[in-house]
Amino acid sequence: MIYEMRIYRCVPGRLPALLKRFETATLKIWEKHGIKQAGFFTTLIGESNQELTYFLAWDSLAEREKKWGAFMTDPDWMKARAESEADGQIVGNIVSQILTPTAFSAVK
């Protein structure tokens, strides 16, 4: 199992729109494509409270490539993204890292 950590740094004031998009659209589309989330977090204390951090669980890089590619080109996703950004851009920057658990990690 590998994990992907993604940090979305929102345009100031747009975090609520991003959270709403995940809750009402993105997660349903992920389910359709078999994308497994491993947790979502907002920043309570840290550099910015305009960030959403989440983890995805993948069996392999090949699985990620296949499923993420299908998601990114899904017409339902493109429509949901466009509708959610009708009032302006939501995300200013995305950071993504692929992580592997250590031998002593509680998460495998």
Automatic annotation (TrEMBL):
NIPSNAP domain boundaries: 3-105
Superkingdom, natural source: Bacteria
Family annotation (Gene3D superfamilies): 3.30.70.100
UniProt-listed SUPFAM superfamilies: Dimeric alpha+beta barrel
Protein name: NIPSNAP family protein
